[in-house]
Every structure is written in C-alpha cells, then in structure tokens.
Write a structure and sequence with these properties.
OB fold (Dihydrolipoamide Acetyltransferase, E2P); 1 helix; 2 domains; five-stranded antiparallel beta sheet
Length: 129
C-alpha cells in the first residue's frame, strides 16, 4: 500500500473504498472538477484540495475494443471487451463492460458501474444501463 505523509496514498484509498463497496472519486474543492485516476494534484492546475465524493456510477462508452482469445477448454468463447467509459462526472476510465457480448458493446452505450472481485481484489466493472 502506498503511503503519503498524511496516510495512505490516493490509489490505496480508492482501493480501500472499493473494498468497502463504495465507488468514490476525487473532486477539487476549488474548481469543482472531478478526476480519475486517483492522484495528489489536479492536472493543469496543480490544485491539491481534493475531497473524495461518491460517484453516480453512470457513464457512456467512449471507446471500445474486443480482445480475442482461444475458446476455453469447454469450447465457450474467452473474448472480452475493453472500454474507456466517460463517467457522468467528467473523467474517463478504462474498464470492461460485461453482461453483453463483447462485440455488442458500442460507442455511446450507457453503462452503470458495479464493484466485482477480479483476481482476488475488488475492481470496477460496467454493465449496460
């Protein structure tokens, strides 16, 4: 876990919130701008007055691609989607859209975030809204 002089670093705090079942992002108090990925200073301004706020969990697919893999041993497809999602709060994040065939995820698709365990750790995934 990364640490700062005042405690866990921004990435560690984000992961801790996910472990609690909460999707939190940072918002600059002075500018009102939301940012993602978690950081110590705002891009462009260098402001460090971040507060953690609950994200709405809603977003729109901004870009998408399908990673094609060999089928699983039982013959089921192993392909998966990788998407950049523009959160309603403004920032974009990379994740996956599930609950729909990977090649059916399209730019402009409205999605809703959910926290799920991936490789033993909580992560943020999206489903069609």
């Amino acid at each position: 876990m990364s640490e700062t002089k005042t405690g866990p670093g921004p990435e560690a705090r984000f992961r801790a919130f996910l472990a609690e079942g909460r999707f939190m992002i940072q918002r600059s108090v002075s500018t009102g701008t939301h940012v993602f990925y978690p950081r110590v200073a705002a891009p462009g301004t260098g402001e460090t007055d971040f507060a953690w706020v609950e994200a709405s969990g809603m977003g729109t697919v901004y870009a998408t691609t399908v990673t094609r893999l060999r089928p699983n041993a039982d013959g089921t497809p192993a392909d998966y989607n990788i998407a950049i999602v523009a959160l309603d709060e403004g920032p974009r994040m990379m994740s996956r859209v599930e609950g729909i065939a990977p090649d059916k995820v399209t730019i402009g698709l409205r999605v809703k975030a959910r926290i799920a365990e991936v490789d033993g750790a909580p992560n943020l995934l999206f489903d069609p809204a």
